[in-house]
Design a protein that fits this description.
mainly alpha; 4 helices
């Protein structure tokens, strides 16, 4: 019998599970019906409402936005200062063009 616990696999036998490797492709055209996000709107949201993570939700990064929102709320406002600085930095990067794709890898429109 083969001992799979120690990493031994008989020669010629495929691994039991090989998960697919999906990665977003930066700069692809949006599929039909996909709302292309605005870089200006995301930048303004980041600078004004960065502590609550609204810009991350807008760009499709829901887990990041939820983390920003929860850190701001659960630290009784102390974490909101850090999240606001993070939001301002993200806003500058968005308006400067250093962040130019949304969570799905689709280019942001100007």
């Amino acid at each position: 019998m083969a001992d799979y616990n120690n990493g031994y696999r008989p020669q010629g036998q495929q691994p039991m599970y090989n998960p697919p490797q999906y990665q977003p492709q930066a700069g692809i055209d949006p599929p039909p019906g996909y709302p292309q996000r605005s870089r200006l709107a995301a930048g303004v949201l980041a600078i004004t409402l960065g502590a609550s993570g609204v810009h991350s939700f807008y760009l499709g990064n829901t887990s990041r936005g939820l983390m920003q929102l929860l850190v701001s709320m659960l630290t009784c406002g102390f974490g909101a200062v850090v999240m606001m600085i993070w939001g301002i930095l993200d806003g500058v990067k968005l308006l400067d063009g250093r962040i130019n794709t949304d969570a799905n890898g689709v280019y942001l429109k100007d």
